[in-house]
Amino acid sequence: MKLHTINQPLLEGCVDSYASAMAAFRGGADRLELCANLSIGGTTPSAGLFCLVRRDCTIPIHVLIRPRFGDFLYTKEELEEMRDEIAVFRNLGADGVVTGVLTPQGELDLDHMRPLMDSAEKMHVTLHRAFDMARDPYETLEAAIGLGCRTILTSGQASSAPAGKAVLQKLFHQAAGRIDVMAGAGVKKENILELFQETGIRVFHTSARRGALDSGMQYRKSTVSMGLPSLSEYEIWRTDEEEVRACARIVHGL
């Protein structure tokens, strides 16, 4: 695998199923962030899913380490779970992990991040969008660099990367080649070039979903919901290979 250097063009596909992983791979993504449950922001995927994707995918795979939906303030037991999961995926051959922990005051929790960094050993560590929930993005950037994180995934502390491009530009210049600032959230083929021109960022993260697929179920129980009532049980969200291909073409031309 070709090693990535800071701010060289890279497209990371954010995927939560085997089908999405293969679509991103075939579409030309340079790296995968493998998750579960993207509809709720992503949680740690199963080892079984990782092993299937690792078997059939030759690009780097970074695994999300997030034990549950919700905030980034974790209990002692959740932190223990996260540390152990990092070790599991490291031993299974993951190239990196994607994680983050905050203090109640909204700062990067260095005391609880350090054991996670130690468990990762030499793997690439990305500070995920916990960064976007931190009180001060510029102080958090320096803290992440000090910890040894190699990438920050961020929307510029906004609802989407296009909405946060002013902060993304400041973060990129503050980083000054010390860490990758990867733009994520709402990244599409239509806005990648503009984001690059206005921020300087060449590293992008996208789920590349263009709409929900209709379930193959013929019998449907409309009165029962297995999860969030706002989500249909009969829609399947999946990465679109052609959207990845279009995004990759733009990113690789930067």
Write structural notes for this entry.
By secondary structure, this protein is an alpha/beta fold. Helices cover 35% and strands 16% of the residues. It is built from eight helices and ten strands. The protein has helices at residues 18-27, 47-56, 76-92, 110-120, 137-147, 165-175, 192-199, 241-252; strands at 10-15, 31-34, 61-64, 96-99, 124-127, 151-154, 180-184, 203-206, 212-214, 235-237. An eight-stranded parallel β-barrel has the order 1-2-3-4-5-6-7-8, surrounded by four helices. Strands 9-10 form a two-stranded antiparallel sheet. Strand 5 (124-127), helix 5 and strand 6 form a beta-alpha-beta unit. Helix 1 runs parallel beside helix 8 (241-252) and helix 3 runs parallel beside helix 4. The longest helix has 17 residues, at 76-92. The two termini are 21 Å apart. The model has no long low-confidence stretch (mean pLDDT 94).
How do the helices and strands line up, and which of them pair or pack?
Blueprint: E1 10-15, H1 18-27, E2 31-34, H2 47-56, E3 61-64, H3 76-92, E4 96-99, H4 110-120, E5 124-127, H5 137-147, E6 151-154, H6 165-175, E7 180-184, H7 192-199, E8 203-206, E9 212-214, E10 235-237, H8 241-252
Parallel strand pairs: 1-2, 1-8, 2-3, 3-4, 4-5, 5-6, 6-7, 7-8
Antiparallel strand pairs: 9-10
Helix pairs in contact: 1-8, 3-4
- The value of Rg in angstroms is 18 Å
Strand content: 15-25%
What string, H for helix and E for strand, traces the elements in order?
Answer: EHEHEHEHEHEHEHEEEH
Main sheet strand line-up: 1-2-3-4-5-6-7-8
Low-confidence blocks of residues: none
Largest sheet: 8 strands, parallel, barrel
The count of helical stretches stands at 8
By oligomeric state, this entry counts as single chain
